[in-house]
Amino acid sequence: MQMDAVDQRIIALLVADARASYAEIGARVSLSAPAVKRRVDRLRTVGVIKGFTAVIEPSSLGWTTEAFVELFCTGRTTPAQITVATRRHPEVVGAYTVSGQADALVHLRAADIGHLEQALERLRAEPFVTSTRSMVVLSRLVETATAVPALPDKPL
How much is the pTM? Predict the structure, then answer.
């Protein structure tokens, strides 16, 4: 799909504030509200925009502990198997195949260390997991939604 500079600016504005109205976005990109809506609808149809969501502070819901866990798997484990297994665990925030020694990296959030330990034990019990290496997060320094670089000649 071809995206022009206006599409990129619309996406950046939606990432910054998904609740912005089409009229507000249109004023920033020099388009009418209906023209912005048509572009957003097109970007949704082709899958560039997957959806709109609320970003929640996990600690406000009592999930104050998080860790990154390297998974080491048996030789024939596929990314699809890892995906299916990690989706069974409500503490999994994200799971990624990675380069290096580990086969996958899993991001976990839990209420406390005891809860994290239980989640790790359940993850380790998956039949393809041979071992794990965990790193508990001490503090989050930078966390963004999908990063969209601003166009150098067009400040948002």
Answer: 0.76
